[in-house]
Amino acid sequence: MTIWRTITTGLITLIAILGVSHVSLAAPAETRQNLAKESTLEAIMQRGAIRVGFDTFKPWAMKDKKGEYIGFEIDVARKLAEDMGVKIRFVPTQWAGIIPALQTGKFDVIIGGMSVTPKRNLKVNFSIPYEFSGMSIIANSAKAKGFDSLDDFNKPEVTVIVRLGTTAHVAARNFLPKATLKVFSEESQTIQELLNGRGHALVASNPLPRTLAKEYEGKLFLPLKDDFTREPIAFAVRKSDMDFLNFLNNWIRVNFASGWLQNRYDYWFNDNEWESLIQ
User: Fold this and answer.
1) How confident is the model at residue 30 (pLDDT cuts 50, 70, 90)?
2) Of all residues in the chain, what percent are helix, strand and coil, respectively (each to 5)?
3) Contact at 8 Å (CB) between 187 and 56?
4) Are 50 and 109 in contact (CB under 8 A)?
5) Nearest CA-CA partner of 166 in 118, 114, 110
């Protein structure tokens, strides 16, 4: 009886252990499924529309003569929605408040030429880069005559114009720490300030400086031959949304491989055919 009781007790204990193990293995799987159901990706599919946050930066996103949004990022957002089989809802948002707006759920993703920075990455998750951008300088011909290096602009008596909250603002502080910075929230304000001669130069990501140099030839000029930074551009999503991030990363890989992203980049950044749409 003692041996039989011992065997019985052992079997009961083994069954209990297996039962607990089964529960412990099943629980994380169930948790993962619940997390997937709560992801932004699932919400977009249920809603039938993706909400995209952005601000206007020429030629990333801007309005054409009919008042419709056009630009590289607008093409990217439309293609993303098309591949998901959902509608697109654009949510224009001031750049300075675009990350808080994402965090509070005003939209699902930022597709707005956003550069990846460690400071931003503390607040949002970034996809892999789908493009790279570089900073350049466009200068006022009368005020910055003879300037042809970063050192020429890095002086207290030199006024450099930048847009608030952009990586151009950060680049200007890092590369031109001695210059006097004038900061504006709107891109149109920075351009007007430079054209009015109330600053020596404007720091912005290309192709805006290249475009302005052509548009205002004789009044503005490019003092540097090349961009002085190279920054990765990526989608930004809310923290801990790994399902959506995985989808976006693979969408970028597929559209890189097909050549679609390069095609749209060449159209908006290496050609000026689109300028007739806005002028």
Assistant:
1) low
2) 45, 20, 35
3) yes
4) yes
5) 114
